[in-house]
């Protein structure tokens, strides 16, 4: 006894055409032999397709409802085998395409589209190295970039002036070619970009001699770009409209400039702060002094307090890096103070320091005067 087609699809006898289609897709996905390797899955798959073949068409469904299997086993659609049904590209193959387009190349290429409209030009990237001072205070920078510009001879059409383009004979202007492939489960249409016109649907009769039919030519262009204050390694600058020219009237891409900061021989950057080091004599550290130090703004006076210990960090406020986007706000300049301990003294210096050691009650016999100086500065 033949199985009931409604039961095979799991729908009621008054199910709509959409309900039947949804049920079929769900079961076809479940029992397709490429997905389900269990014994009997292929046979069940064929039964499901036969049920859908009958119930998806109003005329054959009406005959089946009235006469059962006998009403569809002969005549229109009656004696068709599974293979005959699968060759109906307007029915099963279209549904099969929508179901299995994601399974390992089983799709028919339905996502292929004709590419006759405007195409935006590519974005370009330039890696630019700037010096430390430029990163802090910004400024203008001249660069050169190779990019594609619209051909002025043909105005981007790719055709020799006075000529045009004609409809592609390979694809009849659709930009696509279709190829039927037979498989054990039927025939499937594969759609791909037309190789003759590259999906444009039109073929240039005579190519422009300047651009060889491309519509664009490669040029090297000089640009001036603005470096904002406070940029750092990895900062990306966008220069609108300076990428490659578009095709067929498409907009121009953008240029993205990625910055690298050259190291400075004296300064190191930590966020918005700048660090540097100076060395003072032990007498300057003991007595205190005022010294000149280098900053990104030029020479500045730095006060060394009396009794400054080695590796003390002193701060010059608002002498660091301006905040990107808010240059009024700046970091600080942090200066590490190193104290130089002499390794050799003349006799006068030695006498004076020994007198100081006696005043301080320091025993300089063991370890010598250098030991005393080390203790004074925490060494």
Low-confidence stretches: 75-114
Shape: elongated
Q: What kind of assembly state do the chains in view correspond to?
A: single chain
Compute the average pLDDT: 82
Main sheet attributes: strand count, strand direction, barrel closure: 4 strands, mixed
What Rg is obtained from the alpha carbons, in whole angstroms?
41 Å
Number of helices: 10
- What name is given to the CATH topology of the largest domain? Helix Hairpins
The sequence of SSEs as H and E is HHHHHHEHEEEEEEEEEEHEEEEEEHH
CATH architecture classification name of the largest domain: Orthogonal Bundle
Q: Got a strand count?
A: 17
Q: Structural class, judged by helices and strands?
A: alpha+beta
Could you give the distance between the termini? Answer: 104 Å
Q: In CATH, what is the homologous superfamily of the largest domain?
A: DnaJ domain
Helix residue percentage: 10-25%
The CATH class of the largest domain is Mainly Alpha
Which strand order spans the largest sheet, edge to edge or round the barrel? 10-11-17-14
């Amino acid at each position: 006894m033949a199985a009931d087609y409604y039961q095979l699809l799991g729908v009621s006898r008054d199910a709509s055409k959409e309900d039947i289609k949804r049920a079929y897709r769900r079961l076809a996905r479940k029992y397709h032999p490429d997905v389900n390797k269990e014994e009997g899955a292929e046979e069940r798959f064929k039964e499901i397709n036969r049920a859908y073949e009958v119930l998806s068409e109003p005329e054959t469904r009406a005959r089946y409802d009235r006469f059962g299997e006998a009403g569809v086993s002969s005549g229109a659609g009656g004696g068709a085998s599974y293979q005959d049904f699968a060759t109906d590209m307007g029915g099963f193959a279209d549904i099969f395409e929508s179901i299995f387009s994601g399974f390992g190349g089983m799709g028919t290429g339905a996502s292929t589209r004709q590419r006759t409209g405007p195409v935006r030009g590519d974005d370009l990237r330039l890696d630019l190295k700037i010096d430390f001072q430029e990163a802090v205070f910004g400024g203008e920078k001249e660069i050169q970039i190779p990019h594609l510009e619209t051909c002025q001879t043909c105005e981007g059409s790719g055709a020799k002036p006075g000529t045009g383009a004609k409809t592609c004979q390979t694809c009849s202007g659709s930009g696509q070619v279709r190829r039927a492939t037979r498989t054990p489960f039927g025939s499937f249409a594969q759609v791909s970009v037309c190789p003759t016109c590259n999906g444009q649907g039109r073929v240039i009769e005579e190519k422009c001699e300047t651009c060889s039919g491309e519509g664009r030519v490669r040029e090297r262009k000089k640009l001036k770009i603005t470096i904002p204050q406070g940029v750092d390694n990895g900062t990306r600058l966008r220069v609108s409209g300076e990428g490659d020219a578009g095709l067929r009237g498409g907009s121009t891409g953008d240029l993205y400039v990625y910055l690298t900061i050259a190291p400075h021989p004296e300064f190191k950057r930590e966020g918005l702060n700048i660090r540097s080091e100076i060395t003072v004599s032990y007498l300057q550290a003991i007595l205190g002094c005022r010294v000149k130090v280098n900053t990104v703004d030029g020479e500045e006076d730095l006060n060394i307090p009396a009794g400054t210990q080695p590796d003390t960090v002193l701060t010059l406020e608002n002498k660091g890096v301006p905040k990107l986007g808010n240059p009024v706000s700046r970091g600080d300049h942090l200066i590490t103070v190193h104290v130089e301990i002499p390794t050799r003294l003349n006799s006068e210096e030695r006498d004076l320091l020994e007198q100081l050691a006696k005043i301080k009650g320091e025993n300089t016999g063991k370890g010598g005067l250098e030991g005393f100086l080390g203790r004074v500065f925490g060494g």
